[in-house]
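User: I'm designing a mutation panel for ABC transporter permease and want to avoid disrupting the core. Could you give me a predicted structure to guide residue selection? Please restate the sequence first so the numbering is unambiguous.

Assistant: Good idea. Sequence first, for numbering, then the predicted structure tokens:
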Amino acid sequence: MADKHRHNIDSEISLTYITTSRKLTAVASLGVTIGVAIYIFMNSMAAGFSKKSDATMFKNVPHVRVYKDDEISAPLRAGAGNGALPVIVNPRVVPESQKIINPDQVLALLRQQPEVVIATPQVGVDVFYNSGRTQIAGTASGVIIEEADKMFSIAETMVEGRMEDLKSTPNGILVGVGVAQKMSVKTGDNITITSSRNVTKVMKVVGMFKTSNSNIDKTKSYINISTARQLKLESPSYVSDIDVNVKDYDNAARYSAQLSFLTGYKAEDWKAANETLVAAARMRTILINVISMSILLVAGFGIYNILNMTINQKINEIAILKAMGFQGRDVVRIFVQQAMMIGLGGIVMGSLLCSLLVYALQHVYVGGDIGYFPIHFEPQMYTRGIIFGLIITFFAGYFPARKASNVDPVSIFRK
């Protein structure tokens, strides 16, 4: 009962210090407001950029790609002693077919794995798109369109024609809007494509797609997998790649090692295939975290300085409190409570300010491949901002409070 009564007195003293120093309290709270708002906003922005980048990448890249890797010829080494063969060190790629042996069995094995969501075969063909004198280099992906749609969400990117028409049109082709624009073709027109094996086919444009990557839109097309095999002069069972999507793409590297062991083929995860982009995204996230955390720490130093000033101003009152029987822990509680009240006010206002900024930027159209500004309300970032704000506020109040708790009333009264 006595402890509860003392806690109430401590809280009243903390509140009194806050109300009697309104300007200092407002400045400290404003610092926390800005620090928390910027921390949550910048981290939400980083999360939005990351999600947008991943979504754009996964419209063209599977989580794991299974394929036959190039084999490098081993150098010949001379044996010891007389009559040894000369050393030839000139390793090169062994010219072998990129064909996956027994693709149906490999696909069945992959689809049995619990972490695999979808696995689909693909035949990639380097082609030239020809229309009159116009010739554009690009890549045609031979796919089973309904499976490819589940993996790359092709239907969502269609801007003209129907994706489903590719299945019913053996010589059909879905082209990127950049390819269509360069060749001045529209849905229903015919174009010819020439493969790297010098096979030429007349194709009917059954639709156009637009991703958020202009480089893809200017070079890529989808054709039926049987047509791709004909363009490469390969057998009806030929498969060059098997694309795999897994449940948790962040763990694709671990899954790729397992899939490579199971199939005996090279399995490359999306992070390894796009190492530079992933490294750039990681650097961006680290930079934003450092900047936002620095701003939050500066806000914490603001509280620290203001409490130091308050303690210096109230040093006689602290000495009187201790002379009246207040313990050191009571003094610590008074100033930590003061800091936490300032911090809580700043955190609430900072969260509201950040929400307004996120809401406003969500409706800003930046154009290009990005569209609307990629930022969303991220509950995880709000939670992190609030926790970090409370921790920094606590320590910003605790250290000056410890100094105040060590005040010796006798030495103060003698001055």
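For picking mutation sites, this is relevant: The mean pLDDT is 84. The CA atoms of residues 33 and 348 lie 8 Å apart.
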